Amino acid sequence: MTVLTLALSKGRILEESLPMLAKVGLDPAGDIDRLLRVPSRTPGVSLLIIRPADVPTYVAYGAADLGIVGKDVLMENGSADLYEPLDLDIAKCRLSVAAKKDAPARDPRRRLRVATKYPEIARRHFAAKGEQVEIIKLYGSMELAPLVGLSDVIVDLVATGGTLRANGLIETEIICQVSSRIVVNKAAMKTKHAAIQGLLDKLARSGGKRKAA
Ligand SMILES: Nc1ncnc2c1ncn2[C@@H]1O[C@H](COP(=O)(O)OP(=O)(O)OP(=O)(O)O)[C@@H](O)[C@H]1O
Ligand SMILES: O=P(O)(O)OC[C@H]1O[C@H](OP(=O)(O)OP(=O)(O)O)[C@H](O)[C@@H]1O
């Protein structure tokens, strides 16, 4: 019988979280190739392997009790429906503004064009500076946009800076630091408190940083 369901962000976060999950017996019990729901090595805890952007939705609706997801996704989609008790300190990067290294000066009467997968974060960032911008929503390869004149700047994740450098872009502003977080369904935190707390304690002991309440 499933006692707890944990939603994992497939891709980079899954790869980076597996060593920590293995330490506490929460890694998949078998091969996860193509499987979307798998038992973990802890009886009663099952795992969902889903796209990062879907994790907050599964947890908010209670289809999963907990999830692992990047702070970038939480900031973009809003996380008011979720508790965020632990910072796992993995998949670390930052959200930044970047532009072409040799970009010519822009006509100040024209609004800055910003290409990004994070329209809400970008809008909030520029609004806080009193700047009205035109946001162009993209789904990947943001670095291409300034190179082909689609946008003046991008808002994207930067880790080593290698992708920016390879494409002749420079980081002009850091918006915030990003790492992966544990999120918890608010109702489950009450109804399954002991099981969830036990799991959070284990993850905290294996490297997760507790967030102030
Ligand atoms: N270069 C990076 N270094 C460290 N962490 C990163 C890096 N890029 C992304 N991340 C983190 O990993 C998360 C997932 O990134 P990943 O590239 O695996 O998926 P995605 O391409 O955003 O998702 P999807 O498959 O749904 O398009 C991001 O939300 C972010 O928190
Ligand atoms: O500063 P760096 O170390 O180069 O990392 C930054 C890159 O990493 C992410 O892309 P990812 O490699 O996940 O590819 P994707 O966006 O196509 O999934 C991000 O979107 C950047 O393109």
Automatic annotation (TrEMBL):
GO terms for cellular component: cytoplasm. It is found in: Cytoplasm. GO terms for molecular function: ATP binding; ATP phosphoribosyltransferase activity. Pathway: Amino-acid biosynthesis; L-histidine biosynthesis; L-histidine from 5-phospho-alpha-D-ribose 1-diphosphate: step 1/9. InterPro entries: ATP_PRibTrfase_cat, ATP_PRibTrfase_CS, ATP_PRibTrfase_HisG, ATP_PRibTrfase_HisG_short. HAMAP family: HisG_Short (MF_01018). Heteromultimer composed of HisG and HisZ subunits. Lacks the C-terminal regulatory region which is replaced by HisZ. Belongs to the ATP phosphoribosyltransferase family. Short subfamily. This is ATP phosphoribosyltransferase. It comes from Solimonas aquatica. The gene is hisG.
